[in-house]
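Incident log, entry 3
Record: mannose-1-phosphate guanylyltransferase (360 residues)
Problem: checksum mismatch between cached and fresh output.
Input:
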Amino acid sequence: MKAIILAGGYGTRLRPLTLTKPKPLVEFCNKPMVLYQIEALAQFGVTHVILAVSYLSDMLHREMEVEAKRLNIKMSISREKKPLGTASALALARQYLEVGDDPFFVLLSDVICEFPFDEMIKFHKEKNCEATIAVTKAEEPSKCGVVIYEKDTGIIGRFVEKPFEYVSNDVNAGFYIFSTSVLDRLQLQPTSIEKEMFPAMAVDRQLYAFELKGFCMDVGQPKDYLTGTSQYLDYIRRSNPDRLTRENGTDGNVLVDSTAKIGERCRIGPNVVIGPRVIIQDDVCLKNCTILGDSLIKSHSCIADCIIGWGCNIGQRVRVESTSVLGLDVSVQDELFIKGGVIYPHKTISESIYEPKTLI
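Fresh output:
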């Protein structure tokens, strides 16, 4: 079987992290987010993965070629000169997708879940339809595209984009199965699977909903990235608790890379991820945050509800909170307060930020 991962966007919602690395390579719980998908596909039996890429595509290609060899799968690159839209990205990759008669998976690159591919493909074949959408429950459906479908049959009737009034909390989870007949609907011009193809399929009653169990998150923006981290760490606690750190100073679910170093009298957790070669000095407090690789958090600092980028240097007695996101190589001088700061790469911060603010 084949799968195509749509990874051609600029990742604007996750800036400043995506200014120096394509979003699919941004680590989520110490692994590039797209690698969760590729490993799950390979484990299911998919032998050919196509990456539809555009922005920083060479970096993505190099890293995923190494993973493809490790997983013993074929990796192909479909490169867009500029982002085309989800449907036209499929059209550009048609040469790979039309080989054979088997249905193929389509995934958006920033979705993290348990990926029940075996159950989903069985459902798709039983329904003998053109396409199956994985749907999940959303806490805030007004921010999403709501899927209205028959609960007994799974047939999708219509979509409601970001409804003002409650109609359902079933939303598109961001991955699909397509039969090869879908290729006849494609055009090599900017078009969207979700906004143009799916409504047409629903009219033809060729579109079905597969209900996901367990957690599912689009982690493509900071708030959802942090929420998804807490959900994924809880999943690890239930499925493979030995991966989590249970040391003095930790509280709740904490994931620490083996190369990281943590000082004395620290308070770490819950919902904390510490990346490779990170140094946490003494008396540091970390809560609901991710510290990406090669960063240094100096003594007596407190990081809460934030993402600290690669190679950052956080001074002593610094407090960073309120969904702040620091890009690559940001330095924060001693005794500063940062609230809701979005700080672009290679900046040195010498004054506190008391209100949400972007520093370019």
